[in-house]
Amino acid sequence: MGKEKDIVERHLLEFPEVHKEALELVTGQKWEFDPVCLRHYPVHVPRDPGMVLTFMEQDSAMMLADSVVKKDVLLSCLENQTKPDPNMVERLMASIANQYLTRAQDGKSPVPIVGGVLHYGDRPWTCLVSLSEKMNTRCKDLPPVFQDFRIRVVDLGALPDEVILHMKTDLRFFAWMVKAKREGRPYTVLEGPVDHPVTTLRGLMYLSGSKISLEETEKIIGGKEKWTMEQVFTCLTKEEVNVAMLRGERKGLRQGRQQGRKKGREETRSKDRQLYSWLKNANRLDDYERALSSEEAFDACYEEMKRETGQ
């Protein structure tokens, strides 16, 4: 996490079209506006702590603005997590309150603020997502004046395949990798162009547990503007940084071997029953005992049965 996380994941969400898709995941609805209407919103400007709350760093904040009437419409504040944070409810609540208070201090009208969390972790999000849950009680049991606060968490590794496959931005490559890691399955390459190959490559490297500098990434990409995931995947493979994908492949191979052994046992039992039935009908059960003495003897007797029965 830390600085490297900010470099990789926050910067991906700072592309307007990616931020819009993340906003749609968080809110569970489509937004009918052009991503160019989103502009970066300052969330790290130092202020007088005596006037407003201390600013808390946010991973990505963008303002949806109406260019015709020159009016702010909605502020979207998104957080990225690679590990569940038990304090995320309070963190996001403070960040949103901070934005409302700052606009008031600046003499600006309040606008709706949407906050949410994208979870990139190897394990599901398990932390509570509302104040009432953290108080271990139900809202209806609380005083009527109690103001609950609930956060929206999008667990990328838990998204259905069809949702990921219908995503339009580079965020789908992140979600696909997280889900592959989560389920321990090999990473398969998604079709379609990679709009931001440098950021996406660095992000996938980060999620796979590898480290690479911006200069190294740009050298790999080589200034080429149009990339597909197959090309990016090739870079990952060449640099031997697909640790997570290999982990999934190893698990898949283990499962395959287990299934193979199970299938082999079933086939052996089937052959054994066939041979026993044939030798019994031929009044040759003594040969059955000899057939069980070794694999070679069994195979020889089984082949004789196939020839005699025309199998």
TrEMBL record:
Disordered as annotated region, ranges: 250-271
Domain of life: Bacteria
Record domain Transposase (putative) YhgA-like: where: 78-180
InterPro entries: Transposase_31
Protein name: Transposase (putative) YhgA-like domain-containing protein
